[in-house]
Amino acid sequence: MAQPTAKKAAQEQAPAKKKRGALLVHERLRDDIQWLRIEPGSALDEVALAQQFEVSRTPIREALLLLSNEGFVQFLQNRTTIVAPLSLHNMAAFTDTLILLARGIVRAATLQRQADRSTFDAYVANYSAALEKGEDEAAFHVQLDFFRTVASLARNRFLAKYFLEAQDASVRTKLLYFFPHLSSEDRSEAIRRLRSIADAVLAGEPDASDAATRDAILFEVEVIQRGLGPRFGHEMTLGPDTVREGDSG
């Protein structure tokens, strides 16, 4: 059988290279958007992105379509593409979904009784060290990795898929409204919450792990709600009866 010519081989390899290019761009852009290296509302220029990633505009468009399907990118009527603004209008529905999925994945992992103490202890120790140093992004990475490990222990690929998607969807909200608003007491509480989940999973106690997971997410919601509140405006006196120092009267 004749060997394919170099030209034919190149033609056969082109679709695979194109696919790899689009997936690579998608992965890197998604990471930049999630971790706020590209801010919500920022315009995404296809030509500039093609130059940045050293690819044609075709894989850029394919990557942007994938990101749009995931809710990270929006196409406007004037053909402008932007990073999707962060909207909190469906926060209650999202939180309900996240709590249900998290409780399910943690309970499933607990019932498997396969958790490794040294691994879980390392996660809690690294999370604690990062929070105490004020290294919020590092702490968040540890927390995400902890729950990815829990998801792998659950041995339920359907539950894990949707839980991990929900977890990814929470990244920007927590970077903006959770970690920046943690007081020193909150940081200690956040560490204690993660420790409680880890201990319950290690002990093989599904009801305890369920409660610990629920309470940990409700604690995060409480901090986020506090972070959305006014800082000083409600405490200022702006009425006509205010007398400035030095005014006579």
Please give the domain count. 2
Mean pLDDT: 89
* Terminal Cα span: 105 Å
- Quick one: overall form? globular
CATH class of the largest domain: Mainly Alpha
Order of helices and strands: HHHEEHHHHHHH
**Beta-strand percent range:** under 5%
The poorly predicted ranges are 9-16
Task: Name the CATH superfamily classification of the largest domain.
Answer: GntR ligand-binding domain-like
Question: Care to count the β-strands?
Answer: 2
Helical content, roughly?
55-70%
As a whole number of angstroms, the C-alpha radius of gyration is 24 Å
Oligomer: single chain
* Discrete helix count: 10
CATH topology term of the largest domain = Four Helix Bundle (Hemerythrin (Met), subunit A)
Structural class designation = mainly alpha
Largest sheet: 2 strands, antiparallel
CATH architecture of the largest domain: Up-down Bundle
